[in-house]
Each structure stands twice: as structure tokens, then as C-alpha cells.
UniProtKB/TrEMBL annotation, chain A:
Bilayer topology annotation: Multi-pass membrane protein
Pfam families: ABC-3
Family membership: Belongs to the ABC-3 integral membrane protein family.
GO cellular component terms listed in the entry, alphabetical order: ATP-binding cassette (ABC) transporter complex
UniProt subcellular location: Cell membrane; Membrane
Species assigned in the record: Vagococcus humatus
Name of the featured protein: Manganese import system permease protein ScaB
Coiled coil: none
InterPro entries, sorted: ABC_BtuC-like, ABC_TroCD
Main location: membrane
Stretches that traverse the bilayer: 12-38, 58-84, 96-116, 136-154, 166-190, 196-215, 222-242, 248-267
Keywords annotated in UniProt: Membrane, Transmembrane, Transmembrane helix, Transport
Any one GO biological process: response to zinc ion
């Protein structure tokens, strides 16, 4: 099985392409996902990754690069969510739910109009066969940009995630940081489209990050662990996808879920079986 | 200009007394969704003193601090320090929110929390270096939390956590310190460590404001008092503001005939 996969890798360019993209996407998702879950924005991650769909469709129709269209719609969704939340008494999960499902529905309509249903299927659930050389370059450019963003603004991301009030009190523009992160999230979501598919992007964002969170009490370690788990899940998932002919998005996500389950049960500091051994949170407020 | 001046004094030595101007609050009003929280507040906050903010639940004590810093939208009002709007002095404000607002499960250690205090002056794109970590170590020592520096913050008691946030304020080297209910649910040792430190900072000339709910320690802890119940009831030196009449005005009949230690007639 493994030999077969390796032979496939040597033989088929599409598999090489798929492997390279999934490794990059797994890595970057782990990094950005760590901030997403610490800021309590998992639902937002799900929303953005769905909301890019109409952008992909419009880009397709216009023959433009889908990264641009998707980014516009991703940011538009993030802004609209914030707007609905501020201008109505609705809670944030409701405004997120309304906005992203509407965007997603619009995307489905647009894609059905523009393309055959098989293409829609590929966008929704990923299609490793579709990864082209030019996509790899695009993914790499996005990954490097997002990493640079995180490195440059690491301090600001940490302080605004942990204590946004303190950050605002000393004059940090926490809104700008928020939208910067939303933009990065959109870019990552778009690059994950081909290997994971829109529907399951959120899993690669939050599952490895949540696994890292359960395994350590240090943010830098959490980011490193979640990137590694993101990469390993992507590679293993691709292997299962190739070997058993399942959609790659599903196998990658299930692999990540297995890692999460292991950490959930056996994490030395926060695992279910080792609770009350120091890692448990203080109940006192 | 003024900022520059403050910074210079700060850089030379924090132990020499500095010359801060008082904070002037003019006609400050804040409302939440149309409901007024505080209205038409006019007052002066003195440097080199610890000013307590007291008042019944829902009196707008925390809102006053947030309104001063403009962390919430103001309906009206300005806050200045000397010639400058308070907004331009933000890096010089250390603010410690109520502990209940903090995510105790965040993967961050005690020393990393204190390090956050060095960020305002570091600014964008500069990484904390030896100097900043040294500041962290000194600040942790001052609150007697050095031995806990590698712990995740969820492992601390309420009092220990509060000391960590005070250390963060120390590491920030700010001249203006705002604390929201720092003494709620903390042990005696921590309370003493914190108040002793605050008194030390006050003697260095810093401006300190504390939202407080326990009326018993008012005379012991504060030099100046702001008594609030949506509107300003009184402000000024304890001897003038902490009177039975003012307390009755602020707390109404809920106070009953409880005699408060140190309250003047």
C-alpha cells in the first residue's frame, strides 16, 4: 500500500502536486487555526471558508484568478457579519449563521449556472486530481504571505487574542488586527479548496489546533504542534485517499480527527484520562 | 510634547518623583444601547495619589474608567491631562480589567503575561529582548511571584493571578494605572502585596485609579475618592468626600444605618 503510494508519487505529477499543496495547506492551517480557536472564532472560520464560494464562482465566470474573487467575498462576509452583529440585537453566532449560509447558497447557485455539477462537487469536497503546477505556486505565495503576517504581528496577535481590552487600552487597533486575521483566514481557506473542499476546510483549521491546545500550555508549542499535525494529517489523508479512492478532503479530516481523539483521551496535561494532574483549569474566578 | 517629557523622566529613573498633570474629566457621559450608564461627570484626578471609585452595583464605576480611556463610545465629554487628550497618552496607561474577563485556559505562562506589559513601548515589529525580559523578572519579584513564572495562568489562585496582572502593569512602566476591582476574591497576602506596591508607586508620583466595592478599606487604601451613582455624588480628598451624607446619597436606603469605619459626619 505504502509502496504503491510512493510509486504513484514518483509516477504521477498530479499526486506530487497534491502532496505539496496539502503539506503547505496543513502547515499554514495549523498556524492560523491556533489563533482562530484561541480567539473563540471557530465558527467564524467555518463561515469564511463557506463564504468564499460565490467569489470562486464569479472568478470562474470572469476568467479571473479565483484567489482574488474569493478574498473579496471572504472579507465581505466578515464585514457583513460584524455589521449585522453591531446593528441588531442578534448574537454573533446567529449573524454568522445567516451571513455564511446565504453566501454559500449564492455560491451554489452561481456555480450551478456556470459549470456542470461535477465541478461543484469538486469545490465542495476537494479534488486532488485538479491541482495544477500554477496552483502550487499560488498556494506557496499565500502561505509565505500569511506566515510573514503572523511573524510580523505575532506580539499584537497574542495580546489582542489574550486580552483585547488591554490591547485596546494601550492604543492597539484591535479591529484592524481582527480583519487582518480574517483576510489571512480567507486566503488559507481558498488555498485549501482543492485538496479539502469548502465544506471541510474548517476542520483542518481547528482540529489540529485544538489537538495542539490539548497537548501543551505554551502558545509557541501549540502552534508548532498543530502545524505538524496539520501536515501529517494531510499526507496521511492523501495516502488513504489515493489508496482507497475516497475524496481527499474527507480522509484528511478524518485523520486529523483521529489525532484529536488521541490527544483528547491521552494528553498528559489535559487528557480525559489524566485529569486532575495539574493541567486542569482553576475554577476560582 | 508632554508625552516626550513624561517618557524622558521615565527613562532616566523611575524612582525620582515625576511631574504629572492631573486628569481632567469634562462632562463625560456614556450609554449602552440608549440607556445612560454615567451622565455629565466632571472631575479631576490627582497624580501622586490613589483614587478610589465607589458606588452601588450598576453605578457605572467600570464604565467611568472605560469612558475615560474611550474604550466605550462616549455620548459627550473630553478627558485631558494637561494640554493633551488622554488618547495620545494611551501607551502610558496600564489597565487591569476585572479578572473574570480573562480566559484562564489560554496557553500562556505567568512570565509571558507580564511580558505583554512591555509591548506598548516596544511598538510594532520590535521583539522583546533581554531588557524586556529583565523588566519581567523585576516586576515578578516585586509581586513575589518569581517562583511561579513558568506556570500556566490557570494554575494560579485568584490572588496570585491578580499579582501577575499588577506585575504586568509594573512592566509597562506606565504613569497612569487603572485597576478594576483588583481586590475581589483574593487572599490577604496578595492584597497586602498589591496595596503596598501601589502606595510605593503613588509616592513616585504616578496617577492611580481603582474601582472598589468594599467600603471598609476605603480610608486605609485611598487618598482621594470618587463616589458615583450614574451621576457624580462627590469627589475629592477622603476627608471631604467620604461622609455619611454622600454615602447615603450614593447608596440610598440600602445602606441603612450601617456604620462604616472612618466615614466622616
Amino acid at each position: 500500500m505504502v509502496m504503491n503510494f510512493i510509486q504513484g508519487l514518483i509516477k504521477y505529477e498530479f499526486l506530487q502536486n497534491a502532496l505539496i499543496t496539502s503539506v503547505i495547506v496543513g502547515l499554514i492551517s495549523g498556524v492560523i487555526g491556533s489563533f482562530i480557536i484561541l480567539r473563540g472564532m471557530s465558527l467564524m472560520g467555518d463561515a469564511i471558508s463557506h463564504a468564499v464560494l460565490p467569489g470562486v464562482a464569479v472568478s470562474y465566470m470572469l476568467g479571473a484568478n479565483y484567489i482574488i474573487g474569493a478574498s473579496i467575498f471572504g472579507l465581505l462576509a466578515a464585514t457583513l457579519i460584524g455589521f449585522v452583529e453591531q446593528k441588531s440585537p442578534l448574537k454573533s453566532d446567529t449573524s454568522i449563521g445567516i451571513v455564511f449560509s446565504s453566501f454559500f447558497a449564492l455560491g451554489i447557485v452561481l456555480i450551478s449556472r456556470a459549470q456542470s455539477s461535477t465541478d461543484l462537487n469538486h469545490i465542495l469536497f476537494g479534488n486532488v486530481l485538479a491541482v495544477r503546477q500554477s496552483d502550487i505556486i499560488m498556494t506557496a505565495v499565500v502561505a509565505v504571505s500569511v506566515l510573514i503576517f503572523i511573524l510580523l504581528f505575532y506580539k499584537e496577535l497574542v495580546v489582542s487574542s489574550f486580552d483585547p481590552t488591554m490591547a485596546a487600552a494601550y492604543g492597539l487597533n484591535v479591529k484592524l488586527i481582527h480583519y487582518g486575521l480574517m483576510f489571512a483566514l480567507t486566503l488559507v481557506a481558498v488555498t485549501s479548496l482543492q485538496t479539502i473542499g469548502t465544506v471541510l476546510v474548517v476542520a483542518l483549521l481547528i482540529t489540529p489546533a485544538a489537538t495542539g491546545y490539548l497537548l501543551t500550555n505554551k502558545l509557541t508549542h501549540m502552534i508548532i504542534i498543530s502545524s505538524i499535525i496539520g501536515v501529517v494529517s494531510s499526507v496521511l489523508g492523501l495516502f488513504f485517499s489515493y489508496t482507497f479512492n475516497y475524496p481527499s478532503g474527507a480522509t484528511i479530516v478524518l485523520t486529523a480527527a483521529c489525532f484529536f481523539l488521541l490527544a483528547f483521551l491521552f494528553s498528559p496535561i489535559k487528557g480525559l484520562l489524566f485529569r486532575n494532574k495539574g493541567g486542569v483549569m482553576n475554577e476560582e474566578v | 510634547m508632554m508625552n516626550q517629557h513624561v517618557m524622558e523622566v521615565d527613562d532616566v529613573s523611575t524612582s525620582t518623583s515625576m511631574q504629572l498633570e492631573p486628569i481632567q474629566v469634562n462632562n463625560l457621559s456614556v450609554s449602552y444601547q440608549g440607556k445612560p450608564a454615567i451622565q455629565h461627570i466632571n472631575l479631576t484626578v490627582q497624580p501622586g495619589a490613589i483614587t478610589g471609585i465607589i458606588g452601588p452595583n450598576g453605578a457605572g464605576k467600570s464604565t467611568l474608567l472605560k469612558g475615560i480611556m474611550e474604550l466605550v463610545k462616549r455620548d459627550s465629554g473630553q478627558v485631558t491631562m494637561g494640554e493633551q487628550d488622554i488618547k495620545s497618552l494611551r501607551k502610558n496607561i496600564a489597565y487591569v480589567e476585572q479578572r473574570s474577563a480573562i480566559d484562564l485556559t489560554f496557553p500562556i505562562t505567568v512570565e509571558e503575561v507580564v511580558l505583554l506589559g512591555t509591548y506598548p513601548k516596544l511598538g510594532l515589529f520590535r521583539r522583546p529582548r533581554k531588557k524586556e525580559w529583565q523588566k519581567v523578572a523585576e516586576s515578578l519579584e516585586k509581586v513575589q511571584m518569581t517562583e511561579f513564572s513558568k506556570r500556566q495562568i490557570g494554575e494560579l489562585s485568584g490572588g496570585q493571578l491578580q499579582r501577575v496582572f499588577i506585575a504586568r502593569a509594573l512592566a509597562q512602566d506606565a504613569d497612569i494605572i487603572f485597576l478594576d476591582e483588583p481586590f475581589v476574591g483574593i487572599d490577604m497576602t496578595s492584597e497586602k502585596v498589591i496595596i503596598d506596591l501601589l502606595k510605593e508607586l503613588k509616592n513616585m508620583g504616578k496617577l492611580i485609579m481603582i474601582v472598589h466595592h468594599d467600603l471598609h478599606k476605603v480610608v486605609e487604601y485611598f487618598d482621594e475618592l470618587i463616589i458615583l451613582n450614574r451621576e457624580l455624588v462627590a469627589s475629592g480628598p477622603i476627608s471631604q468626600s467620604f461622609t455619611t451624607e454622600n454615602m447615603r446619597k450614593a447608596y440610598g436606603s440600602t445602606m441603612g444605618d450601617i456604620v462604616i469605619k472612618g466615614v466622616s459626619d
